[in-house]
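Handout, section B. The chain below has 398 residues.
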Amino acid sequence: MDASEINAITDWLIDGARSAPMPSQMMAQACERMVAAGLPLWRVGVFIRTLHPEIFGRNFIWRQGAPEVEVGTVDFEIQETPEFKRSPLSLVFNRGLEVRGNPDNLADVERFPFLLDLRQEGATDYVAMPLRFLDDTVHAMTLTTKQPGGFSDAQVAALRALTKPLTRITEIITLRRTATTLLDTYVGNRAGERIMGGQIRRGHTDTMQAVIWLSDLRGFTALSDRLPAETVVEILNHYFDCQVASIRAHGGEVLKFMGDGLLAVFPIDEYIGDANHVCARVLEAARESRCSVDALAFPIGEAIERFRFGVALHVGNILYGNIGGGNRLDFTCIGPAVNLAARLEKIAGRMGRTVVASEGFVRACGADWNELGEFPIAGFSTAQRVYGLADEAPVVMA
């Protein structure tokens, strides 16, 4: 084992592992450098808890000779599985302990059954080490070797020493990813990218052409009045699921949930001039959402609650950016086009329609529409033509 090479790896990590800008690249290079320094690694795993509404953690697995680092995720249910409860990672995460296991030792295999799988692959030693972040949360790294007799004491000591700078750079990478994830979760992907890129001052705005999607749940006020608040929240979550997946799959970004309302935008590339293509995808998302909401059945006691929603579609220029007061800002969109979409959504409700659109959207979309009439719109000098899908009949709400 070359002490100078170990020191060089430490310096490289402390300097930010600049030759490896991606997490998987950093891990691959770190492992390859450790092997070159005389540490007999066969398999290395790094397991990081995440701050994500659906994902408990991410894992990065390096294997000697593999073409790339394997990256995966696990959900929150893993904590309740027998496999996790009987694994060294459970002790690392829950108690911050370093755990070592010998695949050839019967007592170790009985305590940690997964060591039998490692023995069948030729492993001779396994160490799980805690990676403790500055906020005292514990993450983990596992190190496995095929060296006869396992790791030497000096090799384990060197690995322990390397976990310190490795923990710091892993924490930095994790914090940046967490910030990105939180922004994506709460303000949307495109808005999150702009905020991370430094667009954080009030008044930082851009003008862009986009399709605007404004929807709400029909009869929500009455629903809220007769059902417990917890049930209403659960219904809303299922209801929004019916739309968000389709919106994102067709190139849209959800900007805001407003009670039972949803505001989304589908940017149009002004240089490509793809308004027709974007509008067609938006209409497809609206049709999919309509089917999903129609199929939504929520049991309440012995009854089954069914739902309807309405969505207004309009295309126009919007002002997109930071608006607010003091140091409390909201990344949203405003403008006459948004106001028109909001008015169209109200008209959809009055007419018992699910999907309505402006004249501008219909011209760009080219699907089969029926004109529903001209309507005076507050704030607009002329009446606006409103259209409904030809394959949709109005429904009178009870």
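Note. The chain has a mean pLDDT of 88. Compare this with the example in section A.
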